[in-house]
Design goal:
Blueprint: H1 15-18, H2 28-62, E1 64-67, E2 72-75, H3 79-86, H4 90-119, H5 126-134, H6 141-151, H7 157-164, H8 176-204, H9 208-216, H10 221-232, H11 234-249, H12 253-258, H13 270-280, H14 284-312
Antiparallel strand pairs: 1-2
Length: 317
């Protein structure tokens, strides 16, 4: 009797189906995701190395008293934060910071917008004046400040010009009011070119048809600027405001080279006070605490401006 044999079902599956490979691991979606991560990896590494790690170390140092000569650290908890309330110099430092930052922000944005409006017109030499106002931006901060230091001396160039017209100029860097005015003006003259370029680009993006329609309707120059130009460039105003506020709070070289924080504490802004406490007085813990205070001010002001944008910035979705 013949024996019946059966074959598994797999033997009846076509060879092509049995040998077909499974789905590939490197799908199009996964390749796109990996490509995206590779593109942002340098930025993420920069944020990690130059932002997150330094902030974390600053927090750790603020909780410790560090003797830089012996290298010994003693955990003191919140003692440095409590010392902020009893620091007799801190109110004067904060006042100088408000005056300096406020003066720089107001003058920088106002003059930047005014210069951009004037240079947005077509006239002979417009390119030359645009280059002239922007050129201080590319000059080294220290070199620029040293030149201003020579100009502002008692027998410097500015007092020489004033003496030529019969005016006795003050010793600009040795009196509190004139010293603060001097550092504000030197900072504004150097950095106003950045805002000018940003405003100029925004003004050139405003459609000329809107101006023509407004003039046909009988609108004046002030009305056109207030109702057409300013609303349309308001996103750029927000950008320049954020950049200028952050830059003013971080201005260090002008103070260090021109006045060294003096006379007394009249030009000692918070960022320079951080430097003094950490590196001149070797109090790394308290200096780190002040640095975290400065960081909190920058973050709060930036977030405040960002939240208020919905009330005055045009074209927000």
């Amino acid at each position: 009797m013949a024996t019946l044999t059966t074959t598994p079902d797999s033997d009846r599956v076509p060879v092509e189906a049995r040998s077909a490979p499974g789905p590939s691991f490197w799908t199009t979606r996964r390749r796109d995701v990996l490509t995206g991560y590779l593109f942002v990896a340098p930025q993420l590494a920069g944020v990690l190395v130059f932002v997150l790690i330094p902030v974390g170390l600053a927090i750790w140092y603020s909780l410790n008293k560090w003797n830089v000569f012996t290298g010994k650290q003693v955990f003191v908890g919140a003692d440095h934060y409590a010392a902020l309330a009893s620091d007799p110099q801190l109110p004067s430092v904060l006042l100088a910071t408000v005056v300096f930052s406020g003066g720089v922000v107001v003058l920088n944005i106002t003059l930047g917008l005014l210069i951009a409006v004037l240079l947005n017109r077509q006239f002979r030499g417009a390119t030359f004046f645009r280059t002239l106002f922007f050129s201080p931006v590319v000059v080294s901060v220290v070199a620029w400040t040293l030149v201003w230091g020579f100009l502002l001396q008692d027998n410097g160039g500015i007092n020489g010009l004033l003496h030529a017209i019969g005016v006795d100029g003050p010793n600009w860097l040795q009196h509190g009011d004139t010293a603060m005015l001097s550092v504000i003006v030197s900072q504004v003259v150097r950095s106003v070119g950045v805002n000018m370029v940003l405003f100029l680009a925004a003004l050139q993006g405003v459609p000329s048809e809107l101006y023509e329609a407004a003039r046909i309707d009988g609108a004046g120059s002030r009305s056109i600027f207030a109702r057409i130009t300013l609303p349309l460039i308001s996103p750029t105003v927000l950008l320049t405001a954020i950049i200028t506020v952050v830059g003013a709070l971080q201005s260090f070289a002008q103070i260090a080279v021109l006045t060294g924080g003096g006379p007394e504490l009249s030009t000692t802004v918070l960022v320079y006070y951080v430097f003094q406490q950490a590196f001149e007085f070797n109090d790394i813990g308290y200096g780190s605490t002040l640095a975290l205070m400065l960081l909190s001010f920058v973050m709060v002001l930036t977030l405040l401006q960002w939240q208020l944008r919905r009330k005055w910035v045009f074209h927000e979705q």
